[in-house]
Amino acid sequence: MSVNKVILVGNVGKDPEVRYFENDRAVANFPLATTERGFTTSSGQQIPERTEWHNLAVWGGLAKVVESYVKKGTQLYIEGKLRTRSWDDKDGNKRYTTEVIVENLQMLGRKSDNPSSTGQAANTGTSAAPQNQQPVSSPPQQSPTQYSNNDSNEGSPEEDDLPF
Amino acid sequence: MSVNKVILVGNVGKDPEVRYFENDRAVANFPLATTERGFTTSSGQQIPERTEWHNLAVWGGLAKVVESYVKKGTQLYIEGKLRTRSWDDKDGNKRYTTEVIVENLQMLGRKSDNPSSTGQAANTGTSAAPQNQQPVSSPPQQSPTQYSNNDSNEGSPEEDDLPF
Amino acid sequence: MSVNKVILVGNVGKDPEVRYFENDRAVANFPLATTERGFTTSSGQQIPERTEWHNLAVWGGLAKVVESYVKKGTQLYIEGKLRTRSWDDKDGNKRYTTEVIVENLQMLGRKSDNPSSTGQAANTGTSAAPQNQQPVSSPPQQSPTQYSNNDSNEGSPEEDDLPF
Amino acid sequence: MSVNKVILVGNVGKDPEVRYFENDRAVANFPLATTERGFTTSSGQQIPERTEWHNLAVWGGLAKVVESYVKKGTQLYIEGKLRTRSWDDKDGNKRYTTEVIVENLQMLGRKSDNPSSTGQAANTGTSAAPQNQQPVSSPPQQSPTQYSNNDSNEGSPEEDDLPF
DNA sequence: TTTT
DNA sequence: TTTT
Asked: Sorted alphabetically, which keywords does the UniProt record give (chains A, B, C, D) (predicted)?
């Protein structure tokens, strides 16, 4: 009945904060920046570049990957869903925060950018690609840059356990 | 350098509010609900269904389409980007609101669901479909269910003109 | 290191064919049509509407959902990945077929469009929606319109068991 | 009425071939590899890593960007749509080829990976990010790594002019 | 082969 | 505030 999907490619704004809860459950929180290029409208107006900051929350096993490999400046591809939480501020006002609950995460860039990597060169394959057809290839190995949360119980429910 | 993309399928929570500005520029604002099904975790915990509400903002020509065809209850597919705006509340606190700036919108459901439609019958093409291959077809016309904002100056810049 | 994602909203071209294998493993295959509207280029050229046909393959539990609820004409949202298979034709030429392996599927449209539905009424929640903010809602039950394959062993491996 | 969307992150398999047509219209064609990690099923079966090759076609201004900046090994994010073309082979059989018509393309990786770049460091921002809120930032510079085709007459129509 |  |  519904789809709630976010796809971001951007740079991590600061080192993730990772917190652990009962049952070894973890969350990593960090900001991710996406930047839209500036441009000139048809009417000649100059629109400057604009950076958007997204609050990411990464649960479970993925949080540990984040703890080990993601830091300020890292370029990431993430897939997730939107979640808005509410809380009461010191003045008794209802406040809202929108986060992206990350469900899939990829570290981008060449091997040499990922300290975690073995430094091996980027895969390009060597299979012949006859006349614009799709060869079915079989390649080498890969370093730890792809991760996914499919527990389906990530992110939401236990959030109520959290000291937000 | 960046990707900031949101894809939602959900139901409109109330009739859109459309506002017009100088130069016939328009915005439509309305809430869209997405609902995640409840489930039972592997440890037997019951997780209830959860509805997420998204604030949508639709600019330009798309806003007029929204004005004409979208209303409370309409099922929509939308594609857009995240935008967080800040403002100062009555207590002088900085407040943040996250919206989805809609760039592409599709009305879902059968014709009979869209009051706008003429209820006209359908179908075309008679090409054979041999062994799981993809024939290339060639068809007729279409009614108003697909719309896209590619002005590239939608949504952001003139936001500063707005009485938010 | 990689993302391979397809998102389609379209109509089912014919009733799915479902095949069962050992261990009660199932696949459903069917074509899905997406249609791009025709338009007129800036130079005045008329570009007609164009329909694209996609070969979908749905594995596992999702295949059974397809068997029960999806038929010719059904409007679907699907998420999946691209897969190109090769085979040798009668003339000894290598042939390629590209399919979309479905990982998530949603039936679109109102209840009345889904014969599977119980036609039951709806709605919940009474939370106020102050000034464009996102309330957090709390809900009931759901009918069979959302399904997902997260076995992670869907689609690919056992394909080798198949009589393609 | 329809959505036909592909999102890929992968590595370019060989240097793009760029062809020019009348009116300075260009296409770039090249293969992109995406790789799924291998895994072990719950029943203990070892599923090896698998690489999928996608045929990309990039039209118009984007093709020139590709010509200048994309080469074998480049890591790309692309967004596009599926297109299946048919042709008759030497034995008189109808053959089908599925391509991804690219509509948006991003070069990934650090500046230093993009020969086009000025070698400047990756942006991370320095704005404070109070209590998990979304600061509205104001950013630095950007190099030529984001490009989009929104002519809406890209890719399809003039394809008929082509010597495929 | 769908749907508009 | 939607929808199932």
From this structure: DNA damage, DNA recombination, DNA repair, DNA replication, DNA-binding
Q: What is the pLDDT of residues D4-49, one digit of tens each?
A: 999 999 999 999 999 999 989 999 999 999 999 999 999 899 999 9
Extract the runs of DSSP E, i.e. beta strands, from B2-156.
3-12, 17-20, 26-36, 39-40, 46-47, 50-59, 75-88, 94-107, 146-148
Nearest to D1 among B84, B94, B106 (CB): B106
- Helix (H/G/I), strand (E/B), else coil: D125: coil
Return d(Cα D11, Cα D72) in angstroms, integer. 8
Q: Would you call D133 and B1 a contact, using CB atoms and an 8 Å cutoff?
A: no
DSSP string, chain C: --EEEEEEEEEE-SPPEEEE-GGG-EEEEEEEEEEEPPEE-TT--EE--EEEEEEEEEETHHHHHHHHH--TT-EEEEEEEEEEEEEE-TTS-EEEEEEEEEEEEEE-S-GGG-TTS------------GGG-----------S-EEE---SSSSSGGGGGS--
Whether B152 sits inside 8 A of D152 (CB atoms) is: no
Cβ C83–D52 below 8 Å, yes or no?
yes
3-state secondary structure of B113: helix
H/E/C letters for each residue in D33-95? EEEECCEECCCCCEECCEEEEEEEEEECHHHHHHHHHCCCCCEEEEEEEEEEEEEECCCCCEE
Q: For chain B, report the end-to-end CA distance as a whole number of angstroms.
A: 30
All domains of chain D in start order, with CATH: 6-36+47-116+137-157 (2.40.50.140)
Distances (CA, A) of C164 to B132, C37, C57: 10, 34, 12
Give the residue-averaged pLDDT of C43-64. 95
**Which DSSP helix (H) or strand (E) runs through D9?**
strand D3-12
pLDDT digits (tens, 9 = 90+) for B85-106: 998 988 888 899 999 999 999 9
Distance CA A33, CA A20 (A): 25
State the DSSP H helix or E strand holding residue A33, giving kind and residue range, or none if neither: strand A26-36
Q: D37 is written with which tokens?
A: 């990690």
The structure tokens 């407040």 sit at B95
pLDDT in tens, A115-143: 443 333 333 333 333 334 433 333 333 33
Nucleotide nearest to B11 (CA to C1'): F2
Give the closest residue to E3 (Cα–C1′).
C11
Q: How far apart are CA B35 and CA A134, in angstroms?
A: 38
For chain D, positions 7-46, list CB contacts with chain A under 8 A.
7, 9, 11-14, 29, 31, 33, 35, 37
DSSP code of B27? E
* Facing residue for C47 by CB, picked from D3, D97, D156: D156
